[in-house]
Amino acid sequence: MNNLLRTAALAGVIAGSAAFSGGAQAADTIKVGVLHSLSGTMAISETTLKDTVLMLVDSLNANGGLLGQQVEAVVVDPASDWPLFAEKARELLEVEEVDVIFGNWTSVSRKSVLPVVEELNGLLFYPVQYEGEESSRNVFYTGAAPNQQAIPAVEYLMSDAGGAAERWVLLGTDYVYPRTTNKILRAFLHENGVDDADIIESYTPFGHSDWQNIIAEVGDFASQGKRTAVISTINGDANVPFYKELGNQGISAEDVPVVAFSVGEEELSGLDTSNLIGHLAAWNYFQSVDTPANRAFIDQWHAYIGDDSRVTNDPMEAHYIGFNMWVQAVELAGTTDVDAVRTAMYGQEVANLTGGTAVMNTNHHLSKPVLIGEILDDGQFDVVWQTDGLVRGDAWSDFLPESQNLVSDWSAPFSCGNCPRPAN
Question: Residue 79 belongs to a domain with what CATH number?
């Protein structure tokens, strides 16, 4: 939707919401909710995202704020407790009366928050890769959908450049994101001629620490004559003992490459990576990408956090993109009213930190590039493959029969997240 059409669509929305937007504009500040775990098993990943939002708010205020007002960040700690995420989201919307929420990491926490933001007509920006198979009018998904991370990663590992893998180990934390992602991947592998005999699948609880038997099983599976790769949807601090046990059992990237979807620079910063060199991660951003925008972002981060050793990562860029799109949408709408801002979000563009431009689509997913990186000995990534251009995020997978005919388009007049595809 171009700016002219978007502005026309906004006129009706703003007129209808004027009675509600006046209160928001009369407040002393515009409030931004920050809903990230600062304790518990997911704090290893989420604390940095809280700091990222605070940095973006500070920068916005230093440049005059938004709609003539200062912006206030309201931080809560759901403590890696999934039901508590829902309680804290309700607190942010009903008690603190925030205008938008930036938060969540795991899909189980997002699923917990979803009915709350839908009931109260809140607005959530979700910055982490996820399993898809969801589309809400109250959520903008700025992390990767499976077709922007999982599918390209497996395609790469199947290719000659990626080692031509024929057998697959699907290891995940036991919750909705790994299980649904692996359901999609299994269907994709079947379409590409891989039999179930060449796939093993295993799930462990959050915070799992005893990997000895599972890694031994991986080694045995990989020794049976076909090139084997591991797809890791392990989340949180369980990654630390997982990678340590890979090293203990001498499973190198040369023999059995692991590609991770939830491990980035932040998770590797606490590890000895000497035994992990060459293992992979698939994201839409890596700190090592050398662009002027990324160098400026890293400098801003180091100055804000006061520590030049602190790394950046993909979900940080997703918050950067989502936050700046929200600011632009508020400015275009002239209000923080959720309905008006939602309409103004469609077609918003923000420069990626790795080059090119992210675009928000009417299915509430971004178009952005896909990158695959190899772990280096300093915990950074060497980009070994990337898409030629932007990949549009899909809410519904083309590889699941129950999803193939579903369309997500929240723009008028369609305005539906899971409707049958219209007949041509």
Answer: 3.40.50.2300
